[in-house]
Amino acid sequence: MTDTAAPAEPTPDARTPGKRTGLFVGLGIGGAVIFVAIVTVVLMVALSVLGSTGFPAAAAGRVLLNSSDLAGIDGVEIATGQDSVVNKRSLQAYIKLNRGDSPDIVSPAKCANNLEGWMAWKSLDTPAYRGWKTDVIFEASNIVVDSTQTYENGLQEARHFATVAAATAFVSAQRQWYRTCATTTYGDRLDPSHSATYAFSPIPLNLGLDAVIEGSTNKGTDIAPHLIDVYLRNQNIVYVTELVTNSAPQHGLDKVSLAIVKAAAKKLAQLH
Fold first, then answer.
1. What is the rounded average pLDDT of the residues 129-151?
2. Do the beta carbons of residue 218 and residue 246 sit within 8 Å?
3. Is 0.85 surpassed by the pTM of this model?
4. What spatial distance separates the first Cα and last Cα of the chain, rounded to whole Å?
């Protein structure tokens, strides 16, 4: 259209196909420009979040569950004495204490070399990683559940990552590990009778956080019948807990385990 005087407006039936097409093309181009602008803004926001440093290191130490957090859950408490100790380690010290399993005793072998402890990942945690010298990890095995006293206390750990992107990549790698290694056997070369097999399956649970929740059915000597592995992320802080249960989690979490997991998610979500 131009600024010149327009002829008398034709009736709707008299509009030509060309003008009708031009109208829709114009609207299409305008819509595309708006769409691209929206996508660009969304991507900019997403990248700025992933590239941010997130919470300070001390925040990771605040997310471990304590007696106050568990006070409302019957039969659950934090251990006392030496069992209540919370350790703080640098990433490098943590890796030194938690070497990965040897591939010749793990089947499938590809499921061994990518894990070091619970809070380190070989392909991601290298000297080239930005947080190699600054990431810290808090850890304790101090969650006591009365119904499973014959097994180890529940593990809980929290790691401060240098960036949100690094923490996101860690959780994504963990999620993929459970997909690839849903059934994994750990062989005991000194005593094959103590070899153990863990069969994991995802547990759908909406906690409002980036989460990986897996329940296992275990076979072997002197091992817990079922485990619940939980990874939760808020920005650059990742929290982990592993709980023992006598109920098959594939059929839904038992009441106590669910309460503990929700308490952990609530505490992490309220981090500031």
1. 94
2. no
3. no
4. 55
Evaluate the omega torsion of the peptide bond into residue 10 and state whether it is cis, within 30 degrees of 0.
no
- 87: enclosing H helix or E strand: strand 87-90
DSSP string, 109-127: GGGTTTEETTTEETTT-ST
How many Å apart are CA 221 and CA 209, to the nearest integer? Answer: 35
Residues 184, 189, 191, 194: what is their CA dihedral angle, to the nearest 10 degrees? -10
Task: Tell me if 156 sits within 8 A of 138, measured CB to CB.
Answer: no
What 3-state DSSP class applies to 16? coil
Question: Which residue type, as a one-letter code, is found at position 149?
Answer: Q
Amino acid in position 251 = H
SS (H, E, C) 191-231: CHHHCEEEEEEECCCCCCCEEEEEEEEEEECCCCCEEEEEE
Do 219 and 200 form a contact (C-beta atoms < 8 A)? no
Q: Up-side HSE of residue 89: CA atoms within 13 Å toward CB?
A: 17
Is residue 232 within 8 Å of residue 209, measured between CB atoms?
Answer: yes
pLDDT in tens, 81-126: 999 999 999 999 999 998 877 887 889 988 886 666 789 998 899 9
Cα separation, 216 vs 193, whole angstroms: 20
Q: Is the dihedral of CA 110, 115, 117, 119 positive or negative?
A: negative
Helix axes 164-180, 17-51, angle to 10 degrees: 100
What is residue 239's three-state secondary structure?
Answer: strand
187 vs 1, which has greater pLDDT?
Answer: 187
Q: Which two tokens stand for residue 49?
A: 């979040």
Q: Which sign, positive or negative, has the C-alpha torsion 242, 248, 254, 258? A: positive
Which position has the token pair 């839904």? Answer: 252
Nearest CA among 191, 243, 212 for reference residue 65? 243
